From TrEMBL, chains A, B:
The keyword Metal-binding applies. Its main location: membrane. This is Magnesium transporter MgtE. Pfam families: CBS, MgtE, MgtE_N. Acts as a magnesium transporter. The chain crosses the membrane at residues 290-309, 315-342, 363-384, 390-412, 424-451. GO terms for molecular function: magnesium ion transmembrane transporter activity; metal ion binding. GO terms for cellular component: plasma membrane. Homodimer. It is found in: Cell membrane; Membrane. Residues 143-205, 206-265 form the CBS domain. InterPro entries: CBS_dom (IPR000644), CBS_dom_sf (IPR046342), Mg_transptr_MgtE_intracell_dom (IPR006668), MgtE_N_sf (IPR038076), MgtE_transporter (IPR006669), SLC41_membr_dom (IPR006667), SLC41_membr_dom_sf (IPR036739). It comes from Echinimonas agarilytica.
Length: 452, 452
């Protein structure tokens, strides 16, 4: 629990704000909110209950609204925007970076969207329309169009004088882009390089041409990999002709990296990535019932397998008592392998070239752990129930199921990936259902053969 | 599957390398490896089997060794370093950034460590000894000591001339730090600000004093939160007296963010964060058997609960057939809530101030999903088994277990957090065991009362 310090701070703040809200001390709350940076106010809103959020939002200085919207999680951002007046939205988004701007506007109902758009100035409207022309999770939607470009035939000294005249650079500027007359990207010059170069040199003499620009259509996960691969702080985005469209900065990429990494965790429990922890109960119930519904089918399938073995179950209650152990162990083992493979796929480690090796390895792990727990449980059950036949039955079933668990843990995610289905979403329930069925079949089947 | 493009590239490369290796075309492999950036070579090594890794490593140009070590996952880095000759390690780490340097040296056996240290030059040795004096996951171990500092009383023009004389800046430099004669941090000047300021201004007139430096003792997760909170590209690190020690850049922070996000995923399956997908089977078997051993105990506990109901089980095989459904549904529901709470804790959303509200909400979700699936299964079972008594039994048990699942899904992680135990590691098995037991108790208990 490394984040305890920061967390405790947030929660003592949240408690103070809640106490003040409940006590009706709105002026006090307003003052507290005003003194916090946007990130912390966003965290407060995200940690609040749905009923407290609109009240808090009313108490926030409207000048801060834009900045806070930029920081908020999508689900919560959407619900707040839906409640805002169109003119108010137009004010809040003034000066927002184009990627956030496009997101906010994209989540407005059509009628409000037109109203907001018409209340914006020409330049902003153009930026928004451009940003909205890209897919939601593309490089185009992530980029900012506010970049400084240079021609290759000017000197370092001229550039430095130009920058001094121009004044403040766009936020997060670390590089300047060099383009020709048609806006075609020729290369880049980092500020670090610019200030450490001799002033009489021409830009064409120092520019870095090996820049590997992103295309506007690339998926944001690819953008994140590109940044990690090259340890970038910012990267240019170009169109099909190589013309510069904008740039992506690492702070937006960090959000994508976190979301991608969280995606597997949430999907494996059948949850939506953007699920709001404090969503109203009815909304959560609806979202989760789909997953539970699938599990009902899986559980009924397992029960119908047991149903095939009614004979042995009606003869020996002990078999019924022990029948949950083997499926349980198989489920845990299969989910271990599955999790490893899902992470391996996400990191780009697992693919066609090594799938067979991995399958062999995980089958071997299943074999060895199968042997280990088959013997262990055979001993435990023989002592507990005083019948070595039962011990043999559970050992056989355990071994079979652990071996199959290792194989399923590799095969299921790789097959799903080939079918272009997200392994993190469907994989866990599929392998668990599989090991439940194999576990019951092998245990009840062996019991029927050996004990009846 | 957004990363498919990049992945396919990696895997067609890996396949080509493997084919060439198996064909004995070492010169060809050497040429292929040489043409790839360090990141891609690291990915190739990570995606290779344990037996292929040493061969590949031998074929890599030794000049690239350092860069590739910097990119490798820890488990694999360790195994490669252990195989290297001390002189070779000393060569590879030359010019490495101090954080990576400290890591590599820290993972060497003591005797080799001394040998490597003695073969380094004075300055490098000093940097290493300093970096090694911090805890492994601290800001001190992440930082680089290669920073450019300024005095406040010089002009922008002088600084620009100094930088031009100095030549190439340290990699990733985006800011210069302003310190007094005792190295105490006074503030920072970004390169963007420097180049856009009038040249006659003094540094003291433009410096940004509101920098919130990190302390060298802070945990890396706190560092990551600090970067996300302030959308930083780099941040200064100071000692207890406010003296500048070094700086941390965002590319190292990105690794921490990914690791932290992956931690929950891996822990919930009882896996180590750094688990190598292609580790030898015996090593994987040993690591995973601990978790499986815990699950054996949990499964035996559940079986001993069933054992208490031997009477009803020996009278009615149908009860045995249906008894796995209720525990299965409870387990899924509890893990949904648990996952949500674990993510909420990691993001800093869930704490004392809203724990009670969240408990109420999740209990309500459990109540509603309990009602829904109680009715559904009652209908299914009544039709299937032609006995409405069984329908009532499963409905009662389902409702009780779903309600308890919601409560356990909140209470377990919060209690573990209070006890300073990682909820991601222990939580999943605890809630599953709990819902298994409650599910069996309520189903078999109700069946005993109603059907006997």
């Amino acid at each position: 629990m490394p984040q305890i310090l920061e967390q405790e701070q947030t929660h003592s703040r949240l408690k103070a704000v809640n106490d003040a809200l409940n006590g009706g001390m709105f002026v006090h709350v307003r003052r507290m909110l005003h003194s916090l940076p946007a990130y912390d106010v966003a965290l407060l809103l995200e940690s609040s209950t749905p009923s407290a959020r609109p009240v808090l939002w009313q108490l926030i200085d409207p000048d801060q609204h834009g900045e806070i919207l930029e920081e908020l999680a999508e689900d919560i951002k959407d619900s707040i925007i839906r409640e805002m007046e169109p003119e108010h939205v137009a004010e809040a988004i003034e000066g927002m970076e184009s990627d956030d701007l496009a997101y906010v506007l994209g989540s407005l109902p059509e009628s409000v969207f037109q109203q907001v758009l018409s209340s914006m100035d020409e330049q902003d409207r153009h930026r928004v329309e451009q940003a909205l022309s890209y897919e939601e999770d593309s490089a185009g939607a992530m980029m900012n169009t506010d970049v400084i470009t240079l021609r290759p035939d000017v000197s370092v000294d001229v550039v430095l004088r130009y920058l001094r005249l121009r004044g403040q650079l766009p936020e997060g500027t670390d590089k300047l882009y060099v383009v020709d007359k048609q806006d075609k990207l020729l290369g880049e010059v980092s500020l670090a390089l610019l200030v450490s170069s001799q002033s009489e040199l021409e830009i064409s003499e120092i520019l870095e041409v090996d820049v590997a620009p992103l295309s506007a259509e690339q998926h944001d996960s690819e953008v994140a990999q590109h940044f990690e691969r090259h340890d970038l702080i910012s990267a240019p985005v170009v169109d099909g002709n190589g013309c510069l469209l904008g740039r992506i900065t690492v702070d937006d990429v960090v959000d994508v990296i976190r979301e991608d990494a969280e995606h597997s965790l949430m999907s494996m429990a059948g949850l939506d990535d953007e699920e709001d922890t404090f969503a109203p109960a009815l909304k959560s119930t609806k979202r989760r019932s789909v997953w539970l519904g699938l599990n009902v089918c899986a559980a009924l399938l397992a029960a119908s397998v047991s149903n095939m073995f009614e004979d042995i179950l009606s003869q020996l209650a002990t078999v019924a008592i022990l029948m949950t152990i083997v499926p349980s162990m198989g489920g845990v083992a299969a989910n271990q392998t599955l999790t490893l493979v899902i992470r391996g796929i996400a990191l780009g480690h697992v693919g066609d070239s090594n799938a067979r090796w991995l399958l062999g390895k995980e089958a071997l792990v299943g074999f060895m752990n199968g042997m280990l727990w088959a013997f262990t449980l055979a001993a435990v059950v023989t002592v507990w129930k005083g019948d070595w036949h039962l011990g043999v039955v559970i050992a056989v079933a355990m071994f079979v199921n652990m071996l199959m668990a290792g194989i399923a843990g590799v095969m299921v995610p790789l097959t799903l990936k080939r079918l272009k289905i997200d392994p993190a979403l469907a994989g866990s329930m599929m392998v668990t259902t599989f090991t439940d069925i194999i576990g019951l079949l092998s245990f009840l089947g062996t019991a029927t053969v050996m004990l009846r």
